[in-house]
Write a structure and sequence with these properties.
Elements (H helix, E strand, L loop, with lengths): L3 E4 L5 E4 L2 H9 L2 E6 L1 H5 L19 H4 L2 H6 L1 H17 L4 H12 L2 E6 L5 H5 L4 E3 L2 E8 L26 E5 L8 H13 L2 E5 L11 H7 L3 E6 L11 E4 L2 H12 L9
Parallel strand pairs: 3-4, 3-8, 4-5, 8-9, 9-10
Antiparallel strand pairs: 1-2, 6-7
Helix pairs in contact: 6-10, 8-9
């Protein structure tokens, strides 16, 4: 089962959805979707490893996103994430996000797992989202990782927890930190129980998220990889749809439920 997709030479993508995949989607009882940075990049959110701009061009993101970096210079790390938060605030969900909302409404059971921290899926309307790497809009205590919603602005950067005095940090997973156990467990459970797994806009190299598509496939699910660049290590038995998620996902949903069937789910 292989899609016939690609650039038409003028920057436009054509998407030919295999009939077998259309039938698989329509019959699916539990669909799981894993999204990565490529999905957000189409909304204008720069991927984590892309070159920084302006003041931040001199910094390596991988040297800022660690507990050790925060301990060395908490103000620098806090301000860098404040800048990234401002980029996310200006971004809007794209057609790929919207297509996943519709897909969730069309199938009996749907689980969305994301490596992104921008909350764009929730802003688009997705209801059940497992955030593997946290959410940049949330803040937690550095000492014990308890989420803090309100604090007193004293001018100190970063601010402190009003209860314990702990410095506050973004509620995201940094290099060297473990993924939140409840989120990882829920993602693993979904991967082993679904009958269709879509891997969308992810490099497929960051563990443990990279293992989820293969876990699903080994459990008997149909695996579909949607990406601009399909990584070579992905199972050859997967269905590969090459193109932007904002083009491929709406085409996929439209192929399974044509316009005239809207409202007849």
């Amino acid at each position: 089962m292989q899609g016939n997709d690609g650039d038409d030479g003028e920057g436009r993508y054509r998407v030919d959805i295999p009939a077998e995949l259309v039938e698989t989607i329509r019959k699916a009882r539990h669909v799981v979707v894993l999204t990565g940075a490529g999905t957000s990049a189409e909304s204008g959110v720069p991927t984590f490893r892309e070159a920084q701009t302006g003041l931040w061009a001199q910094y390596d993101p991988q040297e800022l996103a660690t507990p050790q970096a925060f301990q060395r210079n908490p103000r620098l790390v806090w301000e860098w994430y404040a800048w990234r938060r401002s980029l996310v605030a200006r971004a809007q969900p794209n057609p790929g996000h919207a297509a996943l909302v519709e897909l969730e409404q069309r199938v009996p059971q749907f689980t969305l797992i994301t490596q992104n921290v921008d909350g764009l899926h929730q802003r688009a309307g997705s209801q059940r989202v497992i955030e593997l790497h946290g959410n940049i809009a949330r803040t937690k205590r550095f000492d014990d990782h308890v989420v803090v919603e309100k604090w007193k602005e004293t001018g100190e950067v970063p601010p402190r927890c009003p209860t314990t005095g702990s410095l506050l940090r973004p509620d995201v997973v940094w290099f060297g930190e473990m993924l939140p156990e409840p989120a990882l467990r829920a993602a693993m459970d979904a991967a082993t129980t679904c009958d269709l797994f879509l891997s969308v806009g992810t490099s497929g190299v960051v563990q443990p998220a990279a293992s989820l598509p293969l876990i699903a496939q080994q459990a008997g699910a149909t695996l579909v990889v949607i990406n601009l660049d399909v990584t070579p290590h992905v199972s050859p038995r997967a269905c590969h749809l090459c193109g932007p998620s904002g083009v491929v996902l709406p085409s996929l949903v439209q192929a399974a439920w044509p316009v005239e069937e809207k409202g007849d789910a």
